[in-house]
Amino acid sequence: MTLEELEQIARDVHRENGEFDYQINVCTDLACASHGSDSVREALAAAAQATGKNVLIRKTGCMGPCSSGPMVRVDPAGTLYHRVPTSSAAKIIESLGSAPVAELQCDLNDHFDSQVRVVLENSGYIDPEKIDDYIERDGYKALVQALTEMEPADVVREVTEAGLRGRGGGGYPTGLKWSTVSKAVGDIKYVICNGDEGDPGAFMDRSVMEGDPHRVLEGMALAAFAVGASQGYIYVRAEYPVAVARLTTAIREARRRGLLGSNICNTPFTFDVEVRLGAGAFVCGEETALIASIEGKRGTPKPRPPYPAVSGLWRKPTLINNVETYANIAPIIRNGSKWFHDMGSERSKGTKVFALSGRIRNTGLIEVPLGITLREIIDRIGGGVPEGHTFKAVQTGGPSGGCIPAEMLNLGVSYDALLAAGSIMGSGGMIVMDDTSCMVSIARFFVEFCMTESCGKCIPCRAGTAQMYRLLTKICNGEATMEDLNLLVDLCETVKETSLCGLGMTAPNPVLSTLKYFRNEYIDHIVNKRCTAGVCKIGQVEEVMA
Amino acid sequence: MSKLSLATVWLDGCSGCHMSFLDLDERLLALAEHVDVVYSPLVDAKVFPDDVDIALVEGAVASVDDEKKIREIRAHTKTLIAMGDCAVTGNVPSMRNPIGPDPILERAYLQNASTQQQIPCVVVPKLLKIVRPIHEFVKVDVYLPGCPPSANTFHSALMALITGQPLDVSALTRFGA
Amino acid sequence: MSSTVDIKTLVIDGKEVSARAGQTILEVARENGIEIPTLCHLDGLSDVGACRLCVVEVKGNHKLFPACVTSIFEGMEVTTQTDRLKKHRRTILELLFTERNHICSVCVSNGHCELQTLGQSQGLTHVRLPYRNPNLPVDASNERFTVDHNRCILCTRCVRVCAEVEGAHVWDVMGRGINSMVITDLNEPWGESSCTRCGKCVQVCPTGALFDKGKVGNSHPKHPDFLPYLNMMREAK
């Protein structure tokens, strides 16, 4: 494959697409599919055939506003329809060439206007099972360019200068990690893509893998070239069967096009990727546990150092990044580090994909430049909390994160600002809560999650989360004393400071942050035996867990 | 100097702590110089006095009666000492906790009884679902673990309390000692 | 034959000590008579850093470091006994005592149990947390040994000695989090497993979870010290 060949494919696809008068894109991502988008697509195809109109009907990945599914976009006009029932298919086809179907049209300008799409630039525009669709939108250009025109060190430098930080949650500078692995000594090196997305309320990585799988592969290939690896693994949780299928198809197509395999682009660079399935343990998102799992061992974390960059998969130097991190690589190489560096805030560059959910009007997948305020995300993009309710808090970072109260909504979203507020960026889950949410039971929910997902290796996390859960249950049931609250805080400190891996170290965060900003709710439960949100049924309680 | 009042109490335990206390032997006489035993299974008093300086409580809280007693004792005691592992940890009485009281009662009063097979329901207090150490019910001032704590432990601990000297319990005893 | 050894100097609890590069804080501390509490560590086995009792403070870093798996470096300043560390160690011990059913008074290891001894040395006179009282099995199917899960603290010494020293890998861990259990083979009864009956696991078990059926009462301390000797003789062969 050469750059010319790649561009020829892009031109061919462009021409073929241009032969159609209309292109109708139907989102077939999970949320839309669960509302019947597949039958909508079939009905559209049948209706198009019946009328004889020259229409291309394409199934795409996520378009974003998941709560409004099934989503349909008609190009070239860009008309967006939401909540499209199968019965409207004929009407949509009929309307082509005349006025759009008014009752299906949605006004989501506010929702889309504040967003900047880098990672999601193709999602909703391409058929994820067609490599040529990806190539038509500049796909694999970065890889071919890098292989033919750049040295590995140049790729590392571009990524470093872009200021990209790990999108899996930790925010470690990606360029620094790459340069460490590139300098590590080893006959074999590996690159791993962490697709074990497990935070409650997070579905960014799934949508990327399902909607634009080649973007992940290209990012991994660039990484492999940069650090000198020849084998890659994508670790995806088995609960994402569509992602697994799309990635498997993508790998096969990329091999067929000579973009994976031996001597890619007639260079000495050889790289191939395998998909490995996770069996559903949340802790396998932790890098050392993930590596153990790929090796076929029990997925438990190991103390670091040694870091995977030095001794990772099968004790070889290993680069491990998150799906979204890899998804950012190709555009950085294609557009240059400066382009990326110009987006975002001072120490958090680029964009971030968030999965917006909870008590908010427009739930779904969004991508925003870092530095944007929480208020803009929630009020403008999210459309605010449902009518008649007041915003209470937003939870970021999943079970490792914390809750941020209303008075801090002007906070610019960045790694450092969220950390300072007692939460973390995390992988991108963003759960909005209003006056119907009880912060104590929210904390209890997340602690329960950490308790059941603890691997059991180290004591503070294994037994500490179980005791924390018990104390929180006691508070929710209105049976706790102030002494119990002090004990809870004490326990949080030990679990946070002494746990072996990130899961345990951050498990107390939801408790500590709700205690920091919503202490009155705890006191209300303990002293007044009252839950203002009406969530906890004090007085009519179940047994405290044994 | 007036003597301190000392009470000893027997909740759900084997009385081994009281036996070990009696192992103070001749040192009991020296102790008697400082304290009056105002309530104990070893003396005749039937009612817990209103104002007790030191109470040594043996045994875990296993029945509604134990719970009532320990709250009453706490209300009338200056320094409450959890005496022995049952009071401190639940110990042997708490071994029924994983299965609950019903299988225990059934085994004792139905399966193993040769005559009069019935689970007692009058006079005897109702068992709590879970046997718990006394500090889960009331505030405890001093913990003396051990099964039982040795006579030396009692001696050192009581003399320290009486004379107001610092007390390092871990140097004296441990769980199961 | 000439060999160069890279020697580092560091300070542990105010005491200046020297060490070979690559040694752990725990090794160096113990060589110099500085006691750091441990449970999952055992001389002669690989370290897993699981019990977190050996956490120490390193100057210039707010994070705590497990001494058993942290390598020393030149100029390192380590503190092993601070109020913060003592508090964490006590809380960890409390978590262990409440996690399962540790009734010292009736245990075969009463008097020589590492958990019990640590409880005493760390000044634990009672446990503030509620006891969990889980209902756990006892497997006495092996003709020689018994495993009582009520007393297991999941230190995985048995797993490691079986895999690393005996080479049988009969023991492993099943389940997740608070429901984790050590198992023999694929959770078959110990007596029906591929166990070689060597008894190493019993000797390295820090509590009374694994014990020898042939010995009655609690006057039979365990002898894990065969391990360093065995390893030394194997290396010498």
Task: Describe the 3D structure.
The complex is a heterotrimer of chains A (546), B (177) and C (237). By secondary structure, chain A is of the alpha/beta class. Chain A has helices at residues 3-18, 30-34, 37-51, 89-95, 109-113, 131-136, 141-149, 152-162, 174-183, 204-211, 213-227, 241-256, 287-294, 323-335, 337-341, 374-381, 415-420, 439-453, 459-476, 482-498, 502-506, 509-517, 519-526, and strands at residues 22-27, 55-60, 72-75, 79-81, 190-195, 231-237, 272-278, 318-322, 351-358, 364-369, 391-396, 402-405, 429-434. Helix content of chain A is 43%, strand content 14%. Chain A has a 5-stranded mixed beta sheet with strand order 10-9-13-11-12. Chain A has a 4-stranded mixed beta sheet with strand order 2-1-3-4, with helices on one face. In chain A, strands 7-6-5-8 form a 4-stranded parallel beta sheet, with helices on both faces. The longest helix of chain A is centred in the C-terminal third of the chain and has 18 residues, at 459-476. Chain A starts with a helix and ends in a 20-residue tail after the last helix. The model of chain A has no long low-confidence stretch (mean pLDDT 94). With 177 residues, chain B is α/β, with parallel strands linked by helices. Chain B is built from 7 helices and 7 strands; from the N terminus they run βααβββαβααββαα. Chain B has helices at 16-22, 27-32, 64-75, 84-89, 101-111, 151-163, 169-172, and strands at residues 4-10, 35-39, 52-58, 61-63, 77-83, 127-132, 142-144. The longest helix of chain B is centred in the last third of the chain and has 13 residues, at 151-163. The radius of gyration of chain B is 17 Å and the shape is globular. The mean pLDDT of chain B is 95. By secondary structure, chain C is of the alpha+beta class. Chain C folds into 2 domains: 7-81, Ubiquitin-like (UB roll) (Roll); 86-236, Alpha-Beta Plaits, CATH 3.30.70. In chain C, the strands form 3 sheets. Chain C has a 5-stranded mixed beta sheet, with helices on one face. Chains B and C meet through α4 of B and α3 of C.
